[in-house]
Each structure stands twice: as C-alpha cells, then as structure tokens.
Design a protein that fits this description.
- This protein is an alpha+beta fold and about 80 residues long.
- The protein contains two helices and four strands, in the order βαββαβ.
- The chain has a four-stranded antiparallel sheet, with helices on one face.
- The longest helix has 12 residues.
- The chain is globular and about 35 Å long.
- The N and C termini lie far apart (about 40 Å).
Length: about 80
C-alpha cells in the first residue's frame, strides 16, 4: 500500500491595490520566499485586484502583514 503524506491546504483570498505586472513582480520574491505559501496569483483584471493564496495554514495575518510591509493595501475577502 502506497502511503502518501497528506498536507492540508487552505485557500486565502485578499483584496489588494496591486494593479500592474510591475507591482506583482515587486512582491513575487516575498511571497515565493514563504514556506507556508504553496501557490499564489493576483487577478489584475478583477476590480478588487484579488490575491489568491494556497497555503499550509489558515491564518491570514502573516500574508496581510507581508503585503502591507511591501507598501500595498491588503485585506481578507470573506463570503
């Protein structure tokens, strides 16, 4: 029997003011450097400039802090 290690993933959604490819590139190294972030993308065509993150933990605060330290607005989008 093949046993795979199961890692729970969480989807975190944020509203930002990241509105250009240049801005995305400016934070890419910050997001890529976080071991808790598995995947991320920013929808520049959405009015809310949505940052979508697949993470190993459900806490939004570290992401918000990281994006804000880079000089951008970031808040969690809830249902």
């Amino acid at each position: 029997m093949n046993e795979e290690k199961f890692t729970q993933e969480f989807v975190l959604i944020f509203r930002t003011n990241i509105n250009s490819k240049r801005h995305v590139k400016s934070i890419a190294h910050l997001l890529d450097g976080q071991t808790e972030i598995l995947k991320w993308n920013i929808d520049l065509s959405d009015i809310d400039k949505v940052l979508r993150i697949e993470a190993r933990q459900p806490d939004c605060r570290p992401v918000i802090s990281l994006v804000q330290q880079a000089g951008y607005a970031c808040e969690e989008l809830t249902d």
